Amino acid sequence: MATVRNTPTEAATPQVDDLALLGLMQLVSPALPIGAFAWSQGLESAFELGWVTNEEQLGAWLEGVLEDGLSRCELPLLVRLQKAWAEGDAIALAKWNDWLHATRETAELSDEDTRLGGALVTLLRNLELLPEPHLIPEEPGYITMFAWAAHKRFVPVRQTLLGFAWAWLENQLAVACKALPLGHTAAQRIIERLRPQLAVAVDIALERNDHELGPILPGLALGSALHETQYSRLFRS
Prior knowledge:
This protein is mainly α and about 240 residues long. The chain has ten helices and no strands. The longest helix has 24 residues. It is globular, with a radius of gyration of 17 Å. InterPro entries: UreF, UreF_sf. This is Urease accessory protein UreF. UreD, UreF and UreG form a complex that acts as a GTP-hydrolysis-dependent molecular chaperone, activating the urease apoprotein by helping to assemble the nickel containing metallocenter of UreC. The UreE protein probably delivers the nickel. Its main location: cytoplasm.
């Protein structure tokens, strides 16, 4: 199991805690200029194909992605990547970045991670917040750079995972409000339904061993593949 703790020089103080929280809020904000709003992660295909047609089905779809996707892939990977950044371990960073690319089952999903990662690199460069060049993997993915930004902001690992999961859920519901369509009150009901499960997914992710990692989302992969040739669409994936 990979865990990360603050170093003695990052000892918790009210000011550090406040700035870490604000830094996390900045990272998960829809206003972060990396273009995450342009991607649906296969959800638009689920609408088009009739797999998801209402609030109840959307909640079930998102629960499945959270349980069989995020808790097995993105969230435990953030644990390992934030630890690698904390230790300045370029080998581990390259390893997990490559592993992430290998788990993306469609061109769209791979393109999303690479493009968002590149956009975050550009933003961090403009803010003078990039790590040492030798530590940045070739074609860094979004999760890799998200972990760096969280480390740079002294965000504790558990909060990093919660913030990432929250941003994912908000983005998926924004997609549904545009494409299903889903009313904003219904979106809030889904948040209430899934909010406790975000915390459970984080607990599970923190305990996963390396051999337990890997998403199990054949439906999402199929939907994403079909989306590549979908005639009419609002999103890039």
